[in-house]
Amino acid sequence: MRPLLRAPALVRHIRSAPLPAVQARRWRASQAAPASTSSAQHQRQTPPPPSSRPQPETPSAPQPPPPSTPQTYYTLFPLTFPHGPPPAGPFTPPLSTLKREYLRLQSSAHPDLHHGQATQASATVSSALINTAYKTLAHPLHRAEYLLSLRGAEPLAEAAKMGDAEGDAELLMEVMEVREAVEGARSEDEVRGLMGENEERIKECVQGLEETFGRDDLEAAARGVVRLRYWVGVEDKLKEWVGEGER
């Protein structure tokens, strides 16, 4: 017969005694549960690293508005110049379309159609601008000079306005001969013949400007403007002669 164990010895005996398989698993689970629970709580309490935290959206800097297209004589007549000035658009516009658009604009901007001092003053300015733009774009010489200024070629434009043909001796000689013929004309038929010849010279100059402005060659265009200015001056002299003869 085994001797009876005292209480402390009995406890040590129970702890050291082998447990059944089921009881052993339960005991191990009870010992591991606090650790896993503590680990889960630690994971919930530990904040995520800064790189994984959701970042607030940074408002984008305000973008400047796109630059507005500056108003030119061409923008006043969008039906006549849908592509704008050369080289995008042609040098010579359809003159009938230009005139119709001009009349339509003037009919809506005429000062007599507006009431009030401020409104009439604004309409007067608009009407004057439309009138100047039409006269400029309808005439090949003024149109070419305006194009040079519009493209920032002020020195070329000024030289063209002054009729600077220095270095073109052949042109100067031809102009002098034509002017002498105009001054020596004695009959209207003779003047009409000179006018026909001069119209061909002007047409040739305009065709040259179509090409030079079309390929954006401003220096060549300026030389063409000088040539055109001389022949337009001859045309004015011939018209004066005809006008005086009809009086």
Short description:
The protein has 247 residues and is an all-alpha fold. The protein has helices at 7-16, 21-45, 95-109, 117-138, 140-150, 154-161, 169-183, 188-214, 218-246.
The CATH topology of the domain at 161-246 turns out to be Monooxygenase
Distance between the termini: 165 Å
- Can you say what the CATH homologous superfamily of the domain at 161-246 is? HscB, C-terminal domain
What is the number of E strands?
Answer: 0
**SSE string, helix = H, strand = E?**
HHHHHHHHH
Per DSSP, the total helix count is: 9
CATH class placement of the domain at 161-246: Mainly Alpha
Q: How would you describe the shape? A: globular
Q: How much helix is in the residues?
A: 55-70%
Q: What number is the mean pLDDT? A: 77
Show unreliable segments: 1-11, 33-43, 64-68
Strand content is under 5%
**Could you describe the largest sheet, including whether it forms a barrel?**
none
What does the model show?
By secondary structure, the chain is mainly alpha-helical. Among the domains are: 71-109 and 126-138, Helix Hairpins (Orthogonal Bundle), CATH 1.10.287; 161-246, HscB, C-terminal domain (Monooxygenase), CATH 1.20.1280.20. 66% of the residues lie in helices and 0% in strands. The chain has helices at 7-16, 21-45, 95-109, 117-138, 140-150, 154-161, 169-183, 188-214, 218-246. It is globular, with a radius of gyration of 47 Å. The model is unreliable at 1-11, 33-43 and 64-68 (pLDDT under 50).
